[in-house]
């Protein structure tokens, strides 16, 4: 790599010094530790999730899973070039949607259950209408949202007419699906935007990036409300707390963390028994359990308040790539490079 010129070196130093000042100011007002304050609380039981259904149908690595708002159906995307919509109660496939590009990295189910979306290395977000079929009998493609200069890493529906996307060109976009046009398009991070999680009110969201930061945004604003530092490697996943006052993260640095929006800093720091990085995270409906999918083929669980490891879910035979908790909190779906999807409950 070419050497930085003196101006770039000076700017980098200024940025590092500013981050150090912010961290020092945060530590100054951090008058207590979460685990200490919650030490007299009763312990939560060890997580006792078992595999209720193993969903088999993909013939390559499964990269993403997301629940519908009905807490019954979920959608998965795989490198076999298929989206599959599953009935997680029966374990049956509801629809199989063939994709134009097999390199899918992210899937999303609209809360209404009417639409699914996906994207990846094809540098576009494709939206399908679950209730209408094309001539082949598959769900009808209603939009191909193109114009990205990098891979599509994350997408989430705001409602049936708007979708939020994050991509490898460091941008966040909000699309009007009826018009097929971008309503917002802006640079969000200094690296790939890897993960997006919407708040319970659907008015705010958090993002995680390979630039090791997380940011809080208002759905209608291009300026970040807050920026959070702390991770030492890529932030692979973010998950909004059900209370709307905090969010969890999972990182390549082998830690999961909990950040509080009101105090503007990290509250919890969670490490696994082993030495593997995390790919994805989710929170239970109460927010008491933090779950993280890992490179060690397992899903790890912690008590968020007591900052204690509460169990490991072992069943997958390869890297766990994505997890999604049902909106009603009753079940969790996980997918893996072992080509399977598991429903836990």
Could you walk me through the main structural features you see in this protein, from its secondary elements to its overall organization?
The chain is mainly beta. The chain has one domain: YVTN repeat-like/Quinoprotein amine dehydrogenase (Methylamine Dehydrogenase, Chain H, 7 Propeller). It has helices at residues 6-29, 34-37; strands spanning 51-55, 62-67, 73-78, 82-87, 92-98, 104-109, 115-120, 125-133, 139-145, 152-159, 162-167, 171-176, 181-187, 193-198, 204-209, 214-218, 226-228, 235-240, 246-251, 256-260, 265-270, 278-283, 289-294, 298-303, 308-314, 320-325, 332-336, 341-344. Strand 14 (193-198) and strand 15 (204-209) form a beta hairpin. The longest helix has 24 residues, at 6-29. The mean pLDDT is 95.
What is shown here, in short?
One of its GO terms (biological process) is signal transduction. A hairpin with a 3-residue loop joins strand 3 and strand 4.
Which fold name fills CATH's third level, the topology? Methylamine Dehydrogenase, Chain H
Radius of gyration, in angstroms, nearest whole number? 20 Å
Please report the first level of CATH classification, the CATH class.
Mainly Beta
Q: What name goes with the CATH superfamily? A: YVTN repeat-like/Quinoprotein amine dehydrogenase
């Amino acid at each position: 790599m070419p050497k930085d010129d003196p101006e770039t070196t000076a700017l980098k130093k200024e940025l590092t010094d500013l981050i150090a000042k912010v961290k020092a100011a945060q530590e100054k007002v951090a008058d207590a530790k979460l685990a200490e304050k919650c030490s007299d609380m009763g312990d939560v039981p060890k997580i006792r999730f078992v595999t209720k259904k193993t969903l088999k149908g993909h013939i390559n690595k499964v990269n993403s899973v997301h629940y519908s708002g009905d807490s019954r159906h979920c959608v998965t995307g795989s490198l076999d070039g298929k989206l599959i919509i599953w009935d997680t109660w029966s374990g049956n496939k509801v629809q199989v949607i063939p994709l134009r590009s097999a390199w899918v990295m992210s899937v999303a189910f609209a809360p209404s259950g009417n639409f699914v979306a996906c994207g990846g290395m094809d540098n576009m977000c494709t939206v399908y209408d679950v209730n209408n079929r094309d001539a082949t009998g598959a769900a009808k493609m209603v939009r191909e949202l193109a114009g990205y200069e990098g891979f599509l890493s994350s997408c989430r529906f705001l409602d049936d007419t708007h979708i939020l996307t994050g991509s490898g060109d460091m941008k966040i976009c909000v699309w009007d699906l009826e018009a097929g046009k971008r309503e917002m398009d802006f640079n969000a991070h200094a690296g790939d935007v890897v993960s997006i999680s919407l708040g319970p009110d659907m008015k705010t969201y958090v993002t995680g990036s390979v630039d090791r930061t997380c940011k809080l945004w208002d759905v209608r604003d291009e300026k970040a409300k807050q920026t959070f530092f702390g991770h030492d490697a890529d932030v692979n996943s973010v998950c909004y707390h059900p209370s709307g006052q905090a969010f969890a993260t999972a990182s390549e640095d082998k830690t999961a963390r909990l950040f509080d929006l009101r105090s503007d800093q990290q509250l919890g720091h969670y490490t696994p028994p082993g030495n593997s990085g995390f790919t994805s995270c989710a929170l239970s409906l109460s927010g008491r359990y933090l779950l993280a999918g890992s490179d060690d083929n397992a899903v790890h669980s912690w008590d968020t308040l007591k900052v204690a490891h509460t169990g490991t879910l072992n069943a997958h035979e390869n890297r766990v790539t994505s997890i999604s908790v049902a909106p009603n909190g009753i079940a969790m779906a996980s997918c893996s490079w072992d080509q399977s999807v598991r429903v836990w409950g």
